Amino acid sequence: MSDWFTPDEWRAVALSLRVSVWATLLSLPLGIYVAHVLARRQFWGKQLLNGLVHLPLILPPVVTGYLLLLAFGRKGAVGQYLDQWFGLVLAFKWTGAVVAAAVMAFPLMVRAIRLAFEAVDPKLEQAAGTLGAAPVWVFLTVTLPLILPGILAGAVLAFAKAMGEFGATITFVSNIPGQTQTLPSAIYTFLQVPGGDPQAFRLVLVAIAIAMLALILSEYLSRAIARRIAGT
Amino acid sequence: MSLSVTLHHHFPGFALDVAFEAPPGLTALFGRSGSGKTSVINAVAGILRPDQGRISADHTVLLDTSKAINLPPHRRRLGYVFQDARLFPHLTVQQNLRYGRWFAPKGPGPDFEQITDLLGLQSLLHRRPAALSGGEKSRVAIGRALLSNPALLLMDEPFAALDEPRKAELLPYIEALRDRTQTPILYVSHALPEVARLATTLVVMDQGHVLRAGPAAALLADPDLAPAMGLRDAGSVLAAVITAQDADGLTELHTAGGPIWLPRLASPIGTSLRLRIAAQDVILSRHRPEGLSALNILAGTVREIRMTDQGALIQIALGREHLLARVTHRSAQALGLAPGLPIFAIVKSVAAAQTDIGTGIGQKGTA
Predict the structure, then answer these.
(1) What's the CA gap between B217 and B355, in Å, rounded?
(2) Rounded distance between C-alpha atoms, residue A83 and residue B228, angstroms
(3) How far is B205 from chain A (nearest CA, A)?
(4) Which residues of A touch B144 (CB under 8 A)?
(5) pLDDT tens figures, B47-84
(6) Where in chain B is the domain with CATH 2.40.50.100?
(7) What is the CATH code of the structural domain delimited by B3-220?
């Protein structure tokens, strides 16, 4: 692989992969929880939560990035305590890119998992309860196996979205080669330099390949969930 | 063990207000669709939380709203066979059957082999629910509920989705359960023939209320209840014992009203059976008829008469048992029927079903 890319290009691809994997894995538990809450519970403020989750999908990414900067910057509302208590600095670090990617990918992830929850018949969970299974066991033995393909599909979508995240990332953590320069940021940078087109084009091909693979995988997994729930 | 239920619950436009006792055996909740049967069984299961009520199984209180006790379903130790089998699609039949066992209290429970044999599930164990027929699904659902080692078995029209031949195939399993296990069964149905065949105790429900509750044989022969049961289906049940297998292909049974002959029943001599006789299949006569092709003539006395707009319902005492007959007003008057009058009942059609440990399967015959 490293023969095909210059070190800068390779660093950008590797960083994007690392950021996306972490963004996906870290947001998955919360994504499952929020999807469950939205699919199954009725409570005051549900629409507000739903709106909040979907906001990054609608807002200009630069706005999301700026809000992240306000919240998680070194002097930000949350960021200053992260720095003081845990020595964790997000702004202008690759960890910040993880947060930006996770926030931007969250709506897609929650959407896919929520649909999977909604496809599970609550009567099956009820039946498991009458057979002696406490709610936690019902979730682990009935609900979770039935929605597993949906969770995987949501994770794949989130990963692909994280790979492509640009606006919020560049606003929040800037575009530092080797630090915060992800694949899209690198493409953007190469396009700003005279004669950078061939480099940009190679990265564009990589981006297309990853996006296509993710979509195909996600499609395959959503068919699997349908089959699983139909039980064949 | 016996179950005691008292419930009040308000649904929009419908009030549920019931109280009954379910002793060991099979207690059928019988009534039209919308009479509140499923709500009652759901409250017993803990799926519906009633506004007020108390449900106890012997000394275990499952629900007592006055003391804020409400055990969640998974702590009630019941087996619920739903109308729609509700098998877990991602598990094989075997895994479905063993599901409840994981959560049941440790210690001896029902034997897996025995239950799968009883329900004829051996050949299905490795299949997925989607590959099963309706009848097979019902059997797996019953097995799954039993294997969770329940203290109480709830069945909500377990055969509603099945055609008659399937149902006929499964009813003997329920009879065997009723007679071989100590687990009380609460059984919801709106099909009287099924109820008459299975129930030891009957709770007749109408519009959210209990119309009557008591021993099934007494209630089935009660002319006052016949309209609620549906006049076409109304009929009584009699206990019978096989006394002889005659050479001409008939089986002789002893009943409280005299002998009855049916086309050959496969069960051995001494087998106890439950005979169901529809009220409209009984002809009455003041004198023992002669020169009649009908074999089955029972002797008794008129006990009660109730006139309805669709004929007269006559309850006839046969020893300590009761037979229900439906005749026209004109016949009732012509015969001068009155309580205490000796009477002969000519029985046109009899359905027989087993009532004790045995291998016989319910059979229907006319003679």
Answers:
(1) 13
(2) 77
(3) 24
(4) 131
(5) 999 999 999 988 889 999 999 999 999 999 889 999 88
(6) 235-365
(7) 3.40.50.300
Contact B90, B135 (CB under 8 A): no
* Contact map slice: A 145-164 vs B, CB within 8 A: 145-146
Rounded distance between C-alpha atoms, residue B16 and residue B8, angstroms:
5
| A138: closest chain B residue by CA | B74
- The answer to whether the predicted template modeling score (pTM) of the entire model surpasses 0.90 is no
CB distance A126–B47 less than 8 Å?
yes
Low-confidence ranges of chain B (pLDDT < 50): 356-367
Chain-chain contact of B99 with A141 (C-beta, under 8 angstroms) = yes
Structure confidence at residue A230 (pLDDT): 67
**CA-to-CA distance for B242 and B265, rounded, in angstroms?**
9
Q: How many residues can be counted in chain A?
A: 232
pLDDT score for B13: 86
Residues of chain B with CATH 3.40.50.300: 3-220
Which residues 6+ apart lie within 8 Å of B61 measured at CB?
B54, B55, B67, B69, B71
Contacts of B44 in chain A (CB under 8 A): none
Asked if B9 and B50 touch (Cβ cutoff 8 Å), the reply is yes
Beta strands in B232-361 (DSSP E): 235-245, 250-255, 258-263, 272-278, 282-285, 297-308, 311-318, 321-327, 342-347, 350-354
What is the spatial distance between Cα B284 and Cα B346, in angstroms, rounded to a whole number?
6
Q: What is d(CA B334, CA B132) in angstroms, rounded to the nearest whole number?
A: 57
Where do the domains of chain A lie, and which CATH numbers do they carry?
A: 7-230 (1.10.3720.10)
CA dist B260 and B323 (Å) reads 14
CA distances from A134 to A146, B71, B74, B148, B348 (A): 17, 12, 6, 14, 54
CA distance A68 to A84: 18
Option in B74, B130, B154 nearest A232 (CB): B130
Query: Digits of tens for pLDDT over chain A (232 positions)?
Result: 446 778 878 888 899 999 999 999 999 999 999 999 999 888 998 999 999 999 999 999 999 999 999 998 888 888 888 888 888 888 888 999 999 999 999 999 999 999 999 999 999 999 999 999 999 999 999 999 999 888 988 999 899 899 989 999 999 998 888 888 999 999 999 899 898 888 899 899 988 998 888 888 878 887 877 776 666 5
Which residues sit opposite B56 in a β-bridge? B4, B61
Instruction: For residue A230, give the nearest of B45, B89, B144 by CB distance.
Output: B89
Q: Which amino acid is at B360?
A: G
- Residues from chain B that touch A132, judged by Cβ atoms under 8 A, are 74-75, 77, 100, 102-104, 148
User: Which single residue is written with the structure tokens 């308000």?
Assistant: B10
Please indicate if any CB of chain B lies within 8 Å of the CB of A132: yes
CATH class of B235-365: mainly beta
Contacts 24+ apart (CB under 8 A), B230-234: B230/B192, B231/B279, B231/B280, B231/B308, B231/B310, B231/B311, B231/B326, B232/B280, B233/B192, B233/B193, B233/B278, B234/B192, B234/B278, B234/B279, B234/B280, B234/B313, B234/B324, B234/B326
